[in-house]
Design brief:
The complex is a heterodimer of chains A (88) and B (575). Chain A is mainly alpha-helical and 88 residues long. Chain A contains two helices and no strands. Helices cover 76% and strands 0% of the residues of chain A. Helix content of chain B is 33%, strand content 21%. Chain B is built from 21 helices and 19 strands. Classes of the chains: A mainly alpha (88), B alpha+beta (575). At the A-B interface, helix 1 and helix 2 of A face strand 3, strand 7 and helix 9 of B.
Chain lengths: 88, 575
């Protein structure tokens, strides 16, 4: 009888320790998951800012200005345009 | 001496003493049980909440407002988090050097900063909506009483170019104008909240529950093409500046799908900086301003006359001597033309010719046609403030009104209604509803206004109007066959026609298989020229040419320099 009780006690203690361990690991995982989610949000924000930056650089008004002033480009006159027919 | 032999034991104690101790102990026991029962079962809610407040936190889960994209996925409006610097003036006792450094970081005046920090309030905004990196540098100074707050700010990278279409949002990120208002339901995100358990170091260790799921705002993909939009903006701006006009508007429609590819209003504003806005800048004229369309209505009169079998393409109409008396009123042409065919009436824009066609028809039929084309009722695109224009019931028309309406006077329309109605000529006599968002899938026409034959004949007449001998040779485009109609109308001020004009042009291209409709309206050109062909025609030509090239529409005419014809040859339009 005493032996059985001792075995049961040991099993209970072992179970308790396992629970503590599992709980600890779960919390660690949640923490790292939260960190990753935070990183995701930060990257999302950065993506938004990069999109904004890209569309600011690629604004048509700016492209036209650069093409005209820095690259000295012009719209060709009709006489300067040749249309190539694709071979049948 | 042994304890058992102690003489004290010999004394008999009164039996009630033992009982009293027992009762006292039992009483204590009962009190303890009662207290624990009270704490554990009856009053436990309060204690649980107290306990939870030690380790549980309710976090807000932010949701961002959706983006607005153009048809090619280019960003036209996007929200990004920014920080606002705020202070508790009582705590913010800054050294002069610190104040100077802070003011310099925030690029504001030191005196202004000091004035804000001297205010007798518990909370003041020092500077709103600054970049997160700048905010970090401010916090790195570790100043007392200076705090940060997260906010979202909406940016419009294209600035003033699509301002009227997109509209803008207010302080609390809710749409106030344009698409931002019309699609607010879809764009707006809803912040959620959740409960978590945090450990001593502030790490989240357990998710307890989601109180409210956050709803991210959905993106809206517009039918707009950013490139064509810019083309429309720059060519319209050029014309408004050259002709010193009060305002202007331009519109590009895809005739195949009904999508709005570009929509520009001038004067405009920069939605990123709305500190000093005037009402005139905010007006979305394309939707909200009605005007007398003038001669741009003539093709509809001709189409109805063809449809009802009153005339044929080449029926001759006597317009000499260029005047016509109906009751007490007289209508006239800018200069007499003599005998004209129906096609030439449109080409040379003769008022007398179109009035004669109108008077051969029933007023009810004309009203029916205008109604089918959508005049007189708002288009109901969901855009805020859409106007319907004025179209009186046919029963109240007098003959003179029926005559003037045939050339666009005595009624009023918006530019978008006018462009939409021209779809019957660009398509095979049918109409498709207009779209602000990108079409997914084929569209089906919902109204057949004219027969295919009529639409094709009127299209040929429109092409004649832009050839030498018509009213708008300036609207020609090398490499494409185009068709269109000019309009020049006096403005009504206080019920009478003033000496101010609205020049307009509505056209389509390529004529062999129309893909685009472009409508241009210039309000009060005041640099000498005011005819639709001279003022709005070149805008049309420039914009249409650019848009066709952008979309890669195949050319349907040989590429040769356009001929304007001599000044005398150009027909002045009748008003």
């Amino acid at each position: 009888m005493v032996r059985l009780n001792l075995i049961l006690l040991l099993i209970t203690v072992a179970c308790g320790l396992a629970t503590v361990n599992a709980n600890h690991r779960a919390r660690k995982l949640v923490t790292s998951f939260e960190k990753e989610q935070q990183r995701m949000r930060a990257l999302d924000v950065e993506w938004g800012q990069l999109q904004l930056e890209q569309s600011t650089w690629a604004a048509h008004a700016r492209i036209e200005k650069v093409a005209k002033e820095r690259l000295q480009m012009k719209t060709p006159l009709p006489a300067q345009i040749m249309v190539l027919e694709s071979a049948p | 001496m042994k304890f058992s032999k102690s003489p004290i034991l010999k004394d008999e104690l009164a039996p009630w003493r033992a009982r009293l101790v027992l009762i006292l102990l039992l009483g204590c026991m009962l009190a303890l049980i009662g207290r624990s029962l009270y704490l554990q079962a009856i009053n436990n809610e309060f204690l649980i909440s107290k306990g939870e407040s030690r380790y549980e936190r309710t976090l807000e889960v932010p949701a961002t407002r959706g983006r607005i994209l153009d048809r090619n996925g280019d960003v036209m409006a996007i929200s990004t988090p920014v920080k606002s610097v705020w202070a508790i003036p009582e705590d913010a006792r800054l050294q002069p050097a610190e104040a100077r450094k802070l003011a310099q970081l925030l690029s504001m005046d030191v005196r202004e900063l000091n004035r804000k920090l001297a205010e007798d309030k518990g909370f003041v905004f020092v500077k709103r909506q600054i970049a997160p990196e700048l905010a970090e540098r401010v916090m790195a100074m570790k100043l007392p009483g200076i705090h940060l707050q997260n906010e979202y700010r909406r940016y419009y990278p294209a600035g003033e170019v699509p301002a009227h279409v997109l509209g803008f949002t207010g302080v609390n990120d809710a749409g106030q104008e344009g698409i931002e208002l019309a699609f607010n339901q879809q764009l707006a995100g809803q912040a959620g909240s959740r409960r978590v358990i945090k450990d001593r170091r502030g790490n989240i260790v357990e998710d307890v529950e989601h109180i409210k799921k956050p709803v991210e705002g959905k993106d809206v993909t517009l039918s707009l093409d950013a490139k064509i939009q810019y083309l429309a903006y720059s060519s319209l701006k050029q014309a408004v500046t050259t002709h010193r006009a009060k305002a202007g508007a331009a519109l590009v429609l895809d005739a195949k799908t009904g999508e709005i590819l570009a929509l520009v209003n001038l004067p405009t504003y920069n939605p990123n900086n709305r500190s000093n806005l005037a009402g005139a800048q905010l007006r979305n004229r394309v939707f909200t301003d009605t005007f007398e369309p003038g001669s741009t209505m003539k093709p509809f009169t001709a189409a109805l006359a063809l449809e009802k079998g009153k005339v044929r393409f080449d029926t001759q109409i006597q317009t000499a001597p260029g005047r016509m008396t109906i009751g007490p009123a007289t209508i006239s042409d800018a200069h007499p033309h003599g005998v004209l065919t129906v096609a030439q009436v449109i080409q040379k824009s003769s008022n007398v010719g179109s009035a004669k066609m109108a008077l051969s028809m029933d007023a009810a039929d004309m009203w029916q046609m205008f109604d089918t084309l959508g005049f007189g009722t708002p288009l109901k695109l969901g855009f805020p403030g859409e106007a319907g224009g004025r179209l009186r019931p046919a029963k109240t028309w007098k003959p003179i009104e029926q005559a003037t309406m045939s050339y666009g006077h005595g009624m009023s329309v918006t530019l978008i209604q006018l462009a939409h109605a021209y779809m019957v000529f660009a398509r095979e006599g049918d109409l498709v509803p207009l779209l602000l968002t990108k079409a997914n899938g084929p569209v089906s026409s919902d109204k057949q206004a004219f027969s295919v034959q009529t639409a094709r004949e009127v299209r040929a007449m429109l092409e004649m109007a832009v050839l030498p001998g018509g009213t708008a040779p300036q609207a020609q485009i090398p490499g494409y066959r185009v068709g269109g109609k000019t309009g020049t109308a006096h403005k009504i001020e206080g019920g009478v026609y003033a000496n101010k004009y609205i020049a307009s042009f509505v056209g389509l291209a390529p004529v062999s298989d129309p893909r685009l409709i472009v409508a241009v309206m210039i309000d009060e050109p005041s640099a000498g020229k005011y005819y639709g062909g001279q003022v709005a025609g070149p805008v049309f030509s420039q914009l249409m040419a650019g848009a066709l090239r952008t979309l890669g529409v195949p050319q349907d005419a040989p590429l040769k320099p356009i001929q304007l014809g001599s000044e005398e040859q150009q027909v002045r339009e009748s008003m």
